[in-house]
Amino acid sequence: MWGYYFNSLIHSLPFFLKGLWVTIEVSGLSLIIGTMIGFVWGILRSSGPRWLCWPIMAWVDLIRGTPFLVQVFIIFFILPELGLNLDPFPASVIALTNLAACFICEIVCAGLQSIPKGQVEAALSTGLSSFQCLRYILLPQALKTILPPLVGQYVLLVKDSSVVSAIGLVDVTRVGWLTVQRIPEGIMVFGLVGLLYFSICYPLIVLANRLEKRMTVQTLRL
């Protein structure tokens, strides 16, 4: 019986690979857009005016403090009642982008705030504008602190993308749920699902570890 299930699973492998590609698409697109938004929010939160800082902080705390599944359901099921109908893919991208932006905002803000304020004051006293100070003084130093946890956050968000299968997006998790109805060996089916997620996340884990070690060595040299 196990041999029959295994052969059936092998025949279903093309569907798993299609689901894996959907996972890569939705995760990659969300992380790219979320990173750009998160950096902007993090910069504004660390040094922007209060009328911008407080709403960003409130939104970030709200998103980080509520279950991601609830956020996905609100976007996919509640927004249509307000006249905004979304297919599973764009709804998933919006939900994941918002989640990524909020967590990346905190990482960027913490990295910028780790730079001594005296450096900012010294840069401004030399005639640099606020933008030039951010570009040439703050960001180059803050990136050493930001990059390792940022890549680690990418790993977490790729795994969080499995949640969007709940709204019908045919990602690799959804393919697993559909397959287990035909092949009632959950360990075998979802073991394959886990391996496919691992194939995406492991390179990011290695990258995060290398960045962390490199930044630690550079800090010790200084």
What's the gist of this structure?
The protein is an all-alpha fold. The protein is built from nine helices and no strands.
Write structural notes for this entry.
The chain is built from nine helices and no strands. By secondary structure, it is mostly helical. It has one domain: MetI-like fold (Orthogonal Bundle). It is elongated and about 75 Å long.
Unreliable runs? none
Number of beta strands: 0
So, the CATH homologous superfamily? Answer: MetI-like
CATH architecture: Orthogonal Bundle
Topology readout:
Layout: H1 2-11, H2 13-47, H3 50-64, H4 68-78, H5 88-113, H6 117-125, H7 130-160, H8 172-180, H9 186-221
Helix pairs in contact: 2-3, 2-5, 2-8, 2-9, 3-5, 4-5, 5-7, 6-7, 7-9, 8-9
Notable characteristics:
222 residues; mainly alpha; MetI-like fold; 9 helices; elongated
